[in-house]
Q: What sequence folds into this?
């Protein structure tokens, strides 16, 4: 993306202990690495394409590892002044050897974790560093580090193929292309509801869910996967919900940003979550088509609930932002506080704020 670089770092001697870094894969993000000393490395993240901002998401590969050695990594160009790393969050590590031999996947790692303002930048543009120490679990292993559990566009495609091939789920889950992204990637939309048994079923209201408008908020995709696993399941409650409602689901609003490893923006260098009032269909197709889908569903069914799933860099637990207008009726059944209070906070007080 930013000029030519060698396909692979060359180790000049067999005993060379220099780590080999790579991030040119789906959702990867790492721009530069400087070796400070034998076991310490300074890392710089790539900003979102066509911007100079939004350096929060990282996902990269490390090979030529040594076990039993204390390494230190320091990422030097975060742009947020506050972070959950100040409150106990730890980087994620994945070992190919552990995955193959012990079926161990992603896990939190790191000691001596500090997130602090550094001396780089000037004026309003200030940078912050994240530093941590750790040990690789195996010699000559290939490992990955990430800010949050990765969920790629390919992961979504594999999941949707599984649904389409399922002889039961495919009877009440229809998968279509909502539109194509700026780079030509399909933005899928799922329609989930049980087949009508009588004319009364035509009165079903709609529940609309969207996710991953911000690529670096991968937890929103995992929440969406959990919801789809549930609503496509065979439990009595899931069947009842499919009888009562029509679910419209757009699981990945910004596939281009996800693929290239952006944190917040699309390939236009813009935050799509700020473009819902824009009529620029060509530049923001997923937002334009989602908005028009919602308008059409409002006319055909009425919308009982709309939820857009995100992640957050500072807040803990599960929480909701709501839209409340002064002219809105104050009847309890339409009040936006009721759903998060009764259905989430009261049900799971240990997980929902």
A:
């Amino acid at each position: 993306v930013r000029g030519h670089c060698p396909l692979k770092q060359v180790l000049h001697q067999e005993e060379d202990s220099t780590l080999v870094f790579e991030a040119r894969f789906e959702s990867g993000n790492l721009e530069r690495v400087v070796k400070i000393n034998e076991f310490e490395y300074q890392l710089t993240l790539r900003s979102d394409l066509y911007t100079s901002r939004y350096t929060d998401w990282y996902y990269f590969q490390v090979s030529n590892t040594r076990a039993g050695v204390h390494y230190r990594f320091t990422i030097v160009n975060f742009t947020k002044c506050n972070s959950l790393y100040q409150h106990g969050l730890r980087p994620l590590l994945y070992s190919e050897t552990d995955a193959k031999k012990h079926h161990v996947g992603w896990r939190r790692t790191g000691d001596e974790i500090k997130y602090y303002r550094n001396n780089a930048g000037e004026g309003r543009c200030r940078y912050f560093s994240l530093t941590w120490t750790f040990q690789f679990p195996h010699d000559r292993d290939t490992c990955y580090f990430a800010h949050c559990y990765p969920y790629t566009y390919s992961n979504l495609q594999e999941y949707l193929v599984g649904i389409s091939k399922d002889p039961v789920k495919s009877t009440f889950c229809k998968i279509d292309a909502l539109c194509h992204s700026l780079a030509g990637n399909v933005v899928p939309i799922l329609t989930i509801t049980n087949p009508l048994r009588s004319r009364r079923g035509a009165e079903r209201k709609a529940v609309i869910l969207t996710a991953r408008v911000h690529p670096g908020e991968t937890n929103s995709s995992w929440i969406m996967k959990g919801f789809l696993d549930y609503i496509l399941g065979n439990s009595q409650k899931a069947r009842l919900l499919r009888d009562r409602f029509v679910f419209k689901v757009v699981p990945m609003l910004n596939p281009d940003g996800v693929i290239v490893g952006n944190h917040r923006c699309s390939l236009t260098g813009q935050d799509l979550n700020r473009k819902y009032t824009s009529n620029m269909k060509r530049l923001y197709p997923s937002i334009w088509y989602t908005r028009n889908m919602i308008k059409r569903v409002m006319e055909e069914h009425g919308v009982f609930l709309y939820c857009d799933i995100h992640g957050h860099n500072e807040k803990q637990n599960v929480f909701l932002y709501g839209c409340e207008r002064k002219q809105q009726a104050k009847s309890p059944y339409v009040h936006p506080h009721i759903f998060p209070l009764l259905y989430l906070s009261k049900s799971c007080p240990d997980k929902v704020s």
